[in-house]
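Fig. S4 source data, part A: sequence.
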Amino acid sequence: MKPTMRMCNGDEDYWRIRPFLREVFRLNDRRQVTWEVARWDYWRWPGIEGWGDGPLEEKVVLWELADGQIAAVLNSEGQGEAYLQVHPQWLTPALEEEMIEAAEVRLAVTGEDGSRSLGVWADDQDALRQAILAQRGYARDGTAEHQHRLDLTAPIPDTSVAEGFTVRSLGDVDELPARSWFSWKAFNPNEPEEAFKELGWEWYLEIQRCPLYRRDLDLVAVAPNGDLAAFTTVWFDDVARTAYFEPVGTYPAYQRRGLARAVMTEGLKRVQHLGATLAFVTGYSPEANALYDRMMGLAYARCERWAKTL
């Protein structure tokens, strides 16, 4: 039985893809060779509604069986990126080839010089996808996700909070403009304030629309002067019994005080109390990965970006 390709029909398929991802995640022993549902939600709401990554109808492709069962999903995240979510029962070289071909047609971006390019992500242990990408002229470009994970069946060690700072849940809507500003500045330290004003703070409302969002798991470290000095949002999936940290950051003026570690520790304790047995966080930079190594241990998986000019 060969799966048939079709384009996403919007939110109706968005909700169908969520249980598909949960099933594939379970069948892969909760390894991030495909997306966990929290990442899918995060891309759907702030990614598409707040940051212009969509629409679903153009950036998601499904492969279905005759009975309507989903066999695979291709989706973007950002511009010119392709992620392949494949049910292990239907994983074949032919399906992988077809998905990459569809990504080249539908997800590639055109540069100022008119050239088209695409990045396809592959687990560093996925020999099949790597071989297909190499045959099609792709090459690793040096970009990688370090997928850190922590077994939550053991006690979480305490972490001290810098003197004068406190860790608590995010406040109500009146605190959202400040939360948006400190978050944006943590990841865009060299950008002028005008760029934030153009973006606005309302994108944070889209984060709070995510189905797994809980304000008691949206954590901030507060400075003595009231600044939101560090932050993390933890996405607890009670079906998979997992917790996903996205994002984790510290406002530049308050870095190197252990505040990101403090908010992560509080998050780990809270989700462990809720019944999570496994926690994830993804790092891209040496600085982020150094923090996550300390928090989660040195064991991690790698998902690598393979790039090609078409």
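Fig. S4 source data, part B ends here. The chain has a mean pLDDT of 96.
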